[in-house]
Specification:
Helix content: 40-55%
Radius of gyration: 24 Å
Strand content: under 5%
Structural class: mainly alpha
Number of strands: 2
Order of helices and strands: HEEHHHH
Shape: elongated
Distance between the termini: 75 Å
Largest sheet: 2 strands, antiparallel
Number of helices: 5
Length: about 150
């Protein structure tokens, strides 16, 4: 009888601790899901931070995209060769973000996936291109409702 009470008290204590630990203060810091590693073209690393952008795709890319698959405009080639070195252009085309959204996504790929961080001018060129050609698709609530238009 006493053993049952001790076990029940232990389970209740653990449950209470788990409920109190919603902020994760009792747990050790989580390991990153993906270790940052430098991006590469073939066997050589892509330009490190602040260096030139790639001018060709790595030999082992898995998509058939070409520069022409991206909308034409200033920054088309730079965007294509930097982005398509790691993923197809369909992933880019499926997004729609503000310039701030593209900027934070760019930084995420640099921090999280080890993508090369070009110099400020090239980075701005690419982010501006993405923001111009792939803006947010939906406007605010009610703005795309045909019944609310005059």
């Amino acid at each position: 009888m006493k053993l049952t009470i001790v076990i029940a008290a232990g389970i209740l204590t653990l449950a209470a601790l788990m409920l109190l630990d919603r902020a994760g203060s009792f747990r050790p810091p989580a390991e990153p899901l993906v270790a940052a590693k430098p991006a590469t073209i073939g066997s050589s690393p892509i330009a490190a931070s602040g260096k030139a952008l790639p001018k060709a795709l790595p030999a082992d890319v898995r998509h058939q995209d070409t520069v022409e698959t991206m909308p034409s405009g200033k920054g088309q080639e730079e965007t294509f060769y930097l982005c398509a070195a790691c993923h197809g252009t369909a992933l880019i085309k499926a997004q729609g973000m503000t310039r701030d959204g593209w900027e934070s996504t760019f930084q995420y790929m640099v921090d999280r996936h080890g993508m090369a961080d070009p110099d400020r001018a090239d980075r701005d060129l690419i982010v501006d291109y993405l923001a111009e050609h792939f803006p947010p698709r939906r406007r605010g609530r009610g703005q795309d409702n045909p019944f609310l238009k005059n």
